[in-house]
Amino acid sequence: MNHVYQEGRDFAKAYIAPYTDLTDRESRFPQESFRELGEQGFLKLLIPEEYGGLGKGLEEHAQACLAFAETCSTTALCYMMHNVAVMCLVTHGSGDLKKKIFTDIIENGKFLALAYSEFGSGTHFYITEMTAEVDGEYTTFNGKKSMVTSASYASYYLVLAPSIEEGKINNWVFPLESKGLSFELSEWQGLGMRGNSSCPMHIDHVTLDSSHRIGAEGSGQEQVFNVVAPFFITGLGAIYSGTALHMYEIAAGHAANRKYPDGSTLSNIETIQVHIGNIYKQASAAKAITMEAARAGANGEADALAKILSARIFASEAAIECGRLAMRVGGGKAYNKALPLERLLRDAYAGQIMAPSADVLSVWLGKALTGQMIP
Ligand SMILES: Cc1cc2nc3c(=O)[nH]c(=O)nc-3n(C[C@H](O)[C@H](O)[C@H](O)COP(=O)(O)OP(=O)(O)OC[C@H]3O[C@@H](n4cnc5c(N)ncnc54)[C@H](O)[C@@H]3O)c2cc1C
Question: Which residues are in the Acyl-CoA dehydrogenase/oxidase N-terminal domain (predicted)?
Fold first, then answer.
């Protein structure tokens, strides 16, 4: 896979688009699309070549998320979480854990999810209230995660839990079939991203041996800030850029095709032209800043963090603004769901509140630029 963005767009048209409407209308997880994501190699995008993967990095991750979101934000979001979890294993997993899980992804089309947020700590997802009691080789976990995208569909869940080292956390892999793991599927009633299955996960005396811990004891924070943050935050930038571009495509197409009795179209009206221009401007800028952030991040450049934070904040706000303008262009037809714009606007609203939220990241960006400590 050498042209991930273009191949991702082609894939999305063939294997994501047919399910996008149902995904939203019936709050249905895009299982068929995920089966094909496995078949056609996208689930192994970030798995190193030595394990049979494609060995790609942050830039290709962003390209795939962008390409998928130009067709379906929900599918792109679930896919993005999988890639982030894979990266934790790539960078910190033991050889045995990588072999087991990467083989399952490549040969059986399995995928991963992130079970980090809790009801108490909310957007500050790296603060965990769950308990982890160690007894020799085994650890028994109790607690509840609040919103787990791909819940019950993913085969492995990355879970942040307290370490035995005071004030530190660990990143664990919970297999779906772990005894004591359950999901409250009916609790996912999202405004948008409706196919996500982002519901609570109950952890009731789940016992795992230490081979399920990713990395050294107490290395959870390091993984959150060095791996999860860049891949997750850049991934969100790509998803909301793709959502905004999708809005542009639909609004511009509608303006060109909507005819008045005198034969003129919406596109002939100057105000509509200005709206379309503003949507295009913001969507293109979101894409450009996100791809530049991914490039800077992949090359370890000094200002990569500031670029990544800026891209994610800008793209999630741009998607909401593009949706507002696109709904105006779409008129009553868009309002009455003849166009998918209202769905895209609902999807876009997830952007500003997903952890770390746009507000929290705005504070982090200011701190990064003024040389202050980020928590
Ligand atoms: C579609 C969707 C999918 C999700 N999927 C997952 C998933 O797969 N895994 C997962 O772990 N979590 C997931 N989440 C959860 C998400 O990442 C957040 O943890 C969750 O939305 C926080 O909700 P809350 O009501 O507890 O927010 P709160 O923490 O109560 O925050 C409420 C508001 O206050 C603001 N705020 C809070 N503290 C500060 C601060 N210090 N400075 C500035 N502003 C602040 C926040 O930005 C937010 O706007 C998902 C959320 C959504 C919407």
Answer: 6-106
Q: If you search the block for the tokens 């094909």, which residue do you land on?
A: 36
Q: Which CATH class is domain 115-217?
A: mainly beta
How far apart CA 369 and CA 361 sit, in angstroms, is 12
Using 50, 70 and 90 to split pLDDT, how confident is the model at 373? confident
Q: What tens digit of pLDDT does each residue of 181-207 get?
A: 999 999 999 999 999 999 999 999 999
Mutational pocket test of ligand 1: of 81, 347, 353, 367, the residue with most ligand atoms within 8 Å of the beta carbon:
353
Which of 82, 123, 197 most suits a substitution to test ligand 1, by most atoms within 8 Å of the C-beta?
Answer: 123
Q: What pLDDT sits at residue 137?
A: 95
SS (H, E, C) 13-29: HHHHHHHHHHHHHCCCC
Find out whether the beta carbon of 229 lies less than 6 Å from any atom of ligand 1: no
**Residue range 4-111, CATH number:** 1.10.540.10
Q: Does domain 221-369 have CATH number 1.20.140.10?
A: yes
How many CA atoms are closer than 13 Å to the CA of 273, on its beta-carbon side?
5
